[in-house]
């Protein structure tokens, strides 16, 4: 399939619009995402903050900042992770509200809508920061992806995908939705609150199990950001992605993993709405994204 076929595929574009129209929370987002820009900056802890994002002016369709820890338990876990040499965002939790606002504002200087990826253990201690994100960001992204032991020992990150933790995930999402609705009553554009996304990892559990578990909470999220992680392979598990796409047709799906070129992105875009990239940005391989934006703009 050539590039023009892909982006002029009427069914796909129609589906994308139909999905937004069916979902009030997404109608606002539709106006913010530039249709020409199908590539999103994925979150990288300790790296993707406002300052990092604003270096990439008009490149991405969306930028993700974080992961930010919203409570003490998750921040202590991050301190331990830093102590063994990995990057994380560390800060005084009393200052987090200001830090979030400042980083969202700075990230918006990239010209793209901003998603904030978060982790927390105790949602009751995280509500003020959740509200700040719902108020200022364009997407709230709950991290159900992290596999660092210090985080999974708390039963969060990718552990939230397991059946035994499905009620915890549901409770988190219910509370986030309640806060979203509360805030929405005070908004001028009533009826369009902040979209809630889940960042998930393929192959931690089987696609069927994941679909069952996500179906139990499907009323509480608008989009899935899926790392198509394929154990022992250096390419994405597109069959897994396809299963998720087919079972969640009314959700926005951001595909992710090992995308390094227009060709890689085109293949993944058959099974998702947008594609995100992390490591290729770190290695400075972003020329193809500019080229892809230009081509899409020309032909769409
Ligand atoms: C250094 C680094 C830090 C990351 N931190 C996060 C994070 O905080 N939250 C998250 O959801 N994913 C995180 N990820 C995963 C990426 O968002 C992405 O899913 C993964 O790197 C696969 O995409 P890629 O092949 O384009 O790098 C991180 C990845 C890297 C390389």
Structure, described:
With about 300 residues, the protein is an alpha/beta fold. It has one domain (about 5-300): Aldolase class I (TIM Barrel). Helices cover about 45% and strands about 15% of the residues. The chain is built from 14 helices and eight strands. The chain has helices at about 5, 10-20, 25-30, 50-55, 70-85, 95-110, 125-135, 150, 165-185, 205-215, 240-245, 260-270, 280, 285-300, and strands spanning about 40, 60-70, 115-120, 140-145, 195-200, 225, 250-255, 275. It has an eight-stranded parallel beta barrel with strand order 1-2-3-4-5-6-7-8, surrounded by four helices. Strand 5 (about 195-200), helix 10 and strand 6 form a beta-alpha-beta unit. Helix 2 (about 10-20) crosses helix 3, helix 6 runs parallel beside helix 7 and helix 7 packs across helix 9. The protein is globular and about 45 Å long. The two termini are about 15 Å apart. About 45% of the residues are buried. Residues about 1-15 have low confidence and may be disordered. It binds flavin mononucleotide. Flavin mononucleotide binds next to strand 2 and helix 13.
Number of helices: 14
Determine the CATH superfamily: Aldolase class I
Side by side, the strands of the main sheet go 1-2-3-4-5-6-7-8
Q: State the CATH topology.
A: TIM Barrel
Structural class: alpha/beta
Q: Helix and strand string, N-terminal first?
A: HHHEHEHHEHEHHEHEHEHEHH
Count of strand segments: 8
CATH class: Alpha Beta
What is the CA–CA distance across the termini? 16 Å
Number of domains: 1
Task: Tell me the helix content.
Answer: 40-55%
Which overall shape is indicated by the principal axes computed on the Cα atoms?
globular
Which distinct ligands sit in these coordinates? flavin mononucleotide
Low-confidence stretches: 1-15
| Largest sheet descriptor | 8 strands, parallel, barrel
| CATH architecture annotation | Alpha-Beta Barrel
CA gyration radius, whole angstroms: 18 Å
